[in-house]
Amino acid sequence: MVLKTKKIFKAEKESVPTVKKFVEGQLLLWDLHEDDIKDIVLACDEACANIVMYAYKDDKNNSKKNFSIELKKRGKIVKIIITDNGKEFNILNSPPPDIKQNLKGKREGGFGVFLMKNMMDRIKYKYEEEKNIVKLIKKTI
Questions:
Q1: Nearest CA-CA partner of 77 in 109, 129, 18, 122
Q2: Model confidence pLDDT, tens digit, residues 63-114
Q3: Which residue, 92, 25, 89, 15, is CA-closest to 57?
């Protein structure tokens, strides 16, 4: 049996805590282990923060600034599908953070994607029909 739920959010800073509550609440309903919940929530939080901060940065059309999160559970596998129609960004091509460059002020960020890659067992990305589609996959305890 597959359990699933989906919700659409506005791509604005105020949505990030709401996303966290939505994801965490659903994972608690599915009775996942606390460690898995923390990993999945952190990965979703980082992915959604990136959408809010960067996906629509140069887009003046407020009506399109949304993203969706779909959560699916089949057995021990949890998949989170995050979709936005912002600027194309392949998360898999993001380089690891360079602490030395960050400390020197030559590079900002990079830690969110790094955390996502380390919290999840697998990440998939595709750009299809002018949409970024990120799949976060976690085999739970």
A1: 122
A2: 679 999 999 999 999 999 999 999 999 989 988 877 676 666 665 666 888 8
A3: 89
Domain boundaries, given as residue ranges, for the chain: 2-139
Q: How many CB atoms lie within 10 A of CB 126?
A: 12
Q: Please report, as a single letter, which amino acid is at residue 2.
A: V
Q: pTM for the whole thing?
A: 0.91
CA 11/CA 32 separation, integer angstroms:
27
The top-level CATH class assigned to 2-139 is alpha beta
The runs of H, that is alpha helices, within 1-141 are 15-29, 34-50, 99-103, 111-119
In this structure, the number of other CB atoms found within 10 A of the CB of residue 50 comes to: 22
